[in-house]
Write a structure and sequence with these properties.
By secondary structure, the chain is α+β, with helices and mostly antiparallel strands. It has one domain. It contains five helices and four strands, in the order ααααββββα. It has helices at residues 2-33, 39-47, 54-66, 76-84, 133-136, and strands spanning 89-94, 100-104, 116-117, 129-131. The longest helix is centred in the first third of the chain and has 32 residues, at 2-33. The termini are far apart.
Amino acid sequence: MDGEAVGQEPRAASVDARIGQRWAETRDEFLARVDPGQRPIVAVLMKQPHRGGLGLRMWLRDLAMRGRPLPEGLPQGLVQVYLNDPEAVPLHDCAVCGLAIPVHPSRRGYEGEPEQIYFPACPACGGPTGLYAYWSNMSNH
């Protein structure tokens, strides 16, 4: 049994390294698309979870795991929502381009209707936004 556990460690380390590399690459690509004036604070929030940025890290995790494309430049207003509202999370998306859209969740959690919907239309392409809007519109893609 001990031999099996030891034999599995290199594979686990390899998986961890790949995940870490994917996260770093996605983070770097994400930061490159953030407005230069917002980039330093966004970078800090991504590296220091105790300072906030939960919604930004949730968005980054989704990008790293699903590999959805980002627009060349992220709309400043979209990023600013995460900087202004520490409770904003990417629970909505655009039905057309799939961009993750922040909302301020309900006091009951992520399941209820959001307390604040910041973008009923996508700030990148103008498409409609909502809960699972992109995924429910996949037949059009």
